[in-house]
């Protein structure tokens, strides 16, 4: 037998696996860490660049504002950070 070695200390460059989605009304929902940017589409919709909690930045993705659902706090934080109360319309 060999002594136990914690894999998190042996393989320091290894990232822990991302958290599983939370089920809301039997639908998977991922937690938003922050809103990074926004853009206006030609069809008049607004998309937000989302950083997902527990996921690598390579997993950031554009999501329609209407799909934000329960994640209004990160959107509000983004708008405050942008000084957007009067300049950015979403």
Question: Could you please describe the fold and organization of this structure?
Answer:
- With 90 residues, this protein is of the alpha+beta class.
- It has one domain: OB fold (Dihydrolipoamide Acetyltransferase, E2P).
- Helices cover 16% and strands 29% of the residues.
- The chain has two helices and five strands.
- The protein has helices at residues 7-10, 72-81, and strands at 22-24, 27-29, 32-40, 46-52, 61-64.
In short:
It contains two helices and five strands; from the N terminus they run αβββββα. It has helices at residues 7-10, 72-81, and strands at 22-24, 27-29, 32-40, 46-52, 61-64. β4 and β5 form a beta hairpin.
Indicate the low-confidence ranges by residue numbers.
none
CATH topology: OB fold (Dihydrolipoamide Acetyltransferase, E2P)
**What's the SSE pattern?**
HEEEEEH
Tell me about the largest β-sheet: 3 strands, antiparallel
Main sheet: strand order: 3-4-5
Number of domains: 1
Arithmetic mean of pLDDT: 83
Q: Supply the CATH class.
A: Mainly Beta
Any idea what the radius of gyration is?
A: 18 Å
User: Which class do the helix and strand fractions yield?
Assistant: alpha+beta
**Fraction of residues in H or I helices:** 10-25%
CATH architecture verdict: Beta Barrel
Net shape: elongated
Straight-line N-to-C gap: 61 Å
Strand content: 25-35%
Number of strands: 5
Number of helices: 2
Structural topology:
Blueprint (H helix, E strand, L loop, with lengths): L6 H4 L11 E3 L2 E3 L2 E9 L5 E7 L8 E4 L7 H10 L9
Antiparallel strand pairs: 1-2, 3-4, 4-5
Considering the chains and any ligands shown, give keywords for the structure:
alpha+beta, OB fold (Dihydrolipoamide Acetyltransferase, E2P), three-stranded antiparallel sheet, elongated, single chain, 90 residues
